[in-house]
UniProtKB/TrEMBL annotation:
Record bears the keyword Oxidoreductase: yes
FAD dependent oxidoreductase domain location: 2-401
InterPro entries in the record: FAD-dep_OxRdtase, FAD/NAD-bd_sf
GO terms classed as biological process: D-alanine catabolic process
Coiled coil start-end: none
Molecular-function GO term, any one: D-amino-acid dehydrogenase activity
Official protein name in the record: D-amino-acid dehydrogenase
Organism of provenance: Marinobacter persicus
Record-stated family: Belongs to the DadA oxidoreductase family.
Amino acid sequence: MRILVMGAGVVGITTAWYLQKQGHEVTVVDRQNHSALETSYANGGQISVSHAEPWANPSAPAKILKWLFKPDAPLLYRPKADLYQWRWGLSFLTQCTSAKAAHNIRQMVNLGTYSRCQLQALRAETGIEYDHLEKGILHFYTNEAEFDGAQEPARIMRDLGCDRQVIDADRAVELEPALAPARDRIVGATYTADDESGDARKFTQALAERCQQAGVEFIYGTEVLDFERAGDRILGVRVLQEGRHQTLRSDSYVLSLGSFSAVLARKLGMFLNIYPAKGYSITVPVKNPEAAFNVSLTDDEYKLVYSRLGDRMRVAGTAELNGYTRTLNETRCRAIVRRAAEMMPEAGYWDQAEFWTGLRPTTPSNVPYIGKSHFTNLYLNTGHGTLGWTHSCGSAAALADIVEGRRPGVEFTFSGV
Ligand SMILES: Cc1cc2nc3c(=O)[nH]c(=O)nc-3n(C[C@H](O)[C@H](O)[C@H](O)COP(=O)(O)OP(=O)(O)OC[C@H]3O[C@@H](n4cnc5c(N)ncnc54)[C@H](O)[C@@H]3O)c2cc1C
């Protein structure tokens, strides 16, 4: 079957990979001139099954209210005259109950565990290099109340098979000696030995190359504008390439346009509750390898994640629900540099930090849309929010099974629209 994958981020490229392995004739279309040039470009690098607590949880509404007017708050909701933003916000509130949060954690842990296995198998099969490390993820807390609050989600995750252990500050420093200068601030931590880290851009671009070698066609520099349809079938995708309008035709289609999936879905009268949550990252050259971390870290108070990528360090975080703008807010970038430099002063050349911003395609529950839409030949693999890198291989392998009419090997509620 001919399948057109819309989007060449980590989700679109992994989708193309698993579909071509099933013997399909795959084409990928993207507006950029290469893969992974938007949200998959410089993310936090974590393959974190353990990071499955959704933003929507019982303590979220009070925290968001507190942060509403703080310019460097980790999560910023800037109310706009935007119906979709409000709809997303209201739906987010309905996801904040304990029952919904527990259900969403289960979904994310199951998908994450499956995905990490798929990534490991893909890595073994292809030998792709992407500065990956298998040293686990250490989530440290500098606030007692937050650490107390972490016990329950950690227990739920252990019950679900994700071995997230609660440890004390001394053990945290033993596992990652780079945290020694911050020992007195740390009140406790959790550690998940099976988690990993690596550069999502390097991975995606290397996999795109393997896809090409396997016969996948790439159409870059081409903007998807609209669809041609008849009843419940998609007949083609209208695109703009070098100023020329044309229609790309295929047997089936996969929507993996990150935050822009929602915008394109509306052209089909389909509502996907995906809203961009802008995040930032800094990438810093390692100065003193002895003082730089190897274990991937999560700083709970500042909601920052740290990954060592070869001779670079990536620190990422913060979320701004403020529409589709990718304007880089220096205050927020400098807040990341300040915190990271305070925690590990000798680790990096902090004054050489490169700043980046990207739009997480976020659903109110943090759970992505994976499955068939109500159009008979349109599939969805999108809305991966904070964990698109972690969930990419599993989502793509599962979608390829769904396309084949097979039941994916993971317990997850596959939802199209
Ligand atoms: C600051 C930050 C830190 C993060 N840290 C982590 C982390 O540590 N671990 C983790 O698992 N996840 C992390 N994420 C999330 C992860 O990066 C995303 O979930 C993931 O990159 C989404 O991939 P995607 O392929 O869906 O979207 P994208 O990478 O954005 O790909 C979508 C593609 O669609 C193309 N496109 C869009 N519209 C059109 C159009 N109209 N026509 C043609 N092409 C179009 C774009 O060019 C792009 O290539 C982080 C995100 C951010 C912002």
